[in-house]
């Protein structure tokens, strides 16, 4: 009701802090933290207060859309859309097999409930393969977790004596309840310590007792040194290792061979500082560790996941107050399906296809390629690496359907677009339930009725299943009747139906929606799937559920329905941690041979990410005060950093002649984009950073489309093993990153977001022209460009190299007044490729070594002279 404070939750990060909202004229007029929420307890960050920019975005969809042959879209009614989509997927299934239908998504940071219903439709079609953003971010850690103890762990930072953050800035990215409150408590307590591993002086690093400021991409050497000190200085908890761990001896042997002094030199951290930090970990009563995307999307990401877990396992900081814990889950975030993808043979980890091989699984004539795709509440054409390849792949599909609240970059490639109700117009929930010892869950009630023309995802999926005709009324009638008689009768009827009717057993979310859903309180039909999850939770964590006050699954489900601010669904004892270990002996399996092999390789030092000419590394995806993935499309939600500034160090700014607020052009082999420069003392020399969540188009107040900031995935950097070409242009000069192969040992779908970037004098560029053979060896040519007054503005030094029969050119732009460094090579170029100025001496060939035209001739083609 208008004017009343109604409970809900923030949808912008995995915390999903409880909020209360006053609604006026379909606007989320006032928002504040919900003190009744059992986890966040009234806490919220600044981002939650801006949620109306999501709810009332101009990008909202209000009708199903069908793509015309010319690429435009026409509105169609729901009945037509459902029938045509169901028939289209049946045709794909019958022609090629249901496993050629690929599913991506399932919900963002705040909407997982709709995705729970997708499974019924996919199973009815025989679809097997799926992926989502977790495959791009978290599968490396998930694989390590599975090997070590078979589940996910979370640190109890509220009580930890020492908190360790690896590639994580929780002051800005939150990720655990009451993050800033907890960080302040640690920082102000002289008996507690905070250790931050990060190349940037982040907000959290400023609070830390130990800031291990690694060089970008060298986290593995820092972590290896810390773990090695624990072993070499006898700081391990030997009693814990003997009783609760197997494989510790092999790990000890490997760490005794680690040269701490060499690791310190490689990562750029003072050796004594590393040793002191390790001793602090080794002597603390409790240690909690958090790794995040800063290291999970960097070189050696999977090895880093392993090494940071050694810190708390070797010191026995498990199953104790303030330590690391396995925890209950209301619903699994990862699946059990493994194997390899049908075309590329990439490993499927935690049930997810590596997201960055998706284009390769489509753009092929392989008979097992994906032919159709469903995208739900996700935007892979924007968020996956190499957006151009994604767009090409998605456009080639025989059928693509997108379910979303907005006309996203991905939706514009679909054959059909189905408009979903917003997260505040339907019952909704998330399964980021990661806390210990008290774990919580919240079912959010709708604050508003669905926008006309939209439907909640559970209803969309139910209509699609009905259109397939796989379930009859006779299948559902016993459950309909039982639901009207109450929970106990329904439970008995449901168990009977599942055991005797294979169709019901296969389509459980749909069955619950159709039979139990109509009996739920008004507006909560979409919560029916939670009944099944409540039963499973009560059986899996029987005693912990009872400690939380719920006698059984039905009691837990009713508590969820009756408490809109959320409930505590499990309360564990610390000793329960050992029962949650997934191995039969309930011991941690510490030795992972593949990881110890990678650890040994660190002795050769880190691969050089830069060269003398190109010494700046760019990190992409930094969390800032006003970034929120791509949930917000309306840029006006940002009170500052509206363009997503490129942060550069003071030293690099001075060397390049940059000033705060100047514009920089980001250039690649595929195109270019611009960014505003922010000079920051938080950045190391040779390191620059761009934020996440930018580059989304939006219709402004004047009706024109605007695209604030940079969409880094629009540049052709892809999964680490494929390398990258990305660049930055400053004024008259251009900087561009060289391709690197940064894949780690396991490489389960992680994108490596570190690339070479040139700086200084000269400011450099790297370009690659694939497929063109060079007629000769290395050459160098010098070119100048004049400013408006006819004076030289900059010189352009072009070096063309023969590399495996393919042309590669490095182009350095030297600002006026700085010396030009020439190589002793012959120089040649046509007017197009070395345009309009002083071309140095030509070779006897008198041919441009880029396009083979006569030197001085004009040329056409993809290589421009600008």
- SSE-based structural type: alpha/beta
Strand order, biggest sheet? Answer: 5-4-17-16-15-6-7
Task: Compute the number of strand runs.
Answer: 34
| Distance, first to last CA | 60 Å
Query: Main β-sheet, in a few words?
Result: 7 strands, mixed
Question: What name does the CATH topology of the domain at 60-143 and 346-424 and 449-471 carry?
Answer: Rossmann fold
Averaging pLDDT over every residue, what do you get? 83
Residue windows where pLDDT falls under 50 for at least 5 positions: 716-866
In helices, the fraction of residues equals: 25-40%
Estimate the global geometry from the Cα principal axes: globular
Please give the count of helices.
30
What features would you describe in this structure?
The chain has 866 residues and is of the alpha/beta class. Among the domains are: 50 residues, ADC-like domains (N-terminal domain of TfIIb, Single Sheet), CATH 2.20.25.90; 186 residues, Rossmann fold (3-Layer(aba) Sandwich), CATH 3.40.50.740; 174 residues, Dimethylsulfoxide Reductase, domain 2 (3-Layer(aba) Sandwich); 154 residues, Barwin-like endoglucanases. The chain has 30 helices and 34 strands. A seven-stranded mixed β-sheet has the order 5-4-17-16-15-6-7, with helices on one face. The chain has a five-stranded mixed β-sheet with strand order 22-24-23-28-29. A hairpin with a 2-residue loop joins strand 2 and strand 3. The C terminus is likely disordered. Pfam families: Molybdop_Fe4S4 (PF04879), Molybdopterin (PF00384), Molydop_binding (PF01568). One of its GO terms (molecular function) is oxidoreductase activity. This is 4Fe-4S Mo/W bis-MGD-type domain-containing protein. Keywords: 4Fe-4S, Iron, Iron-sulfur, Metal-binding, Oxidoreductase.
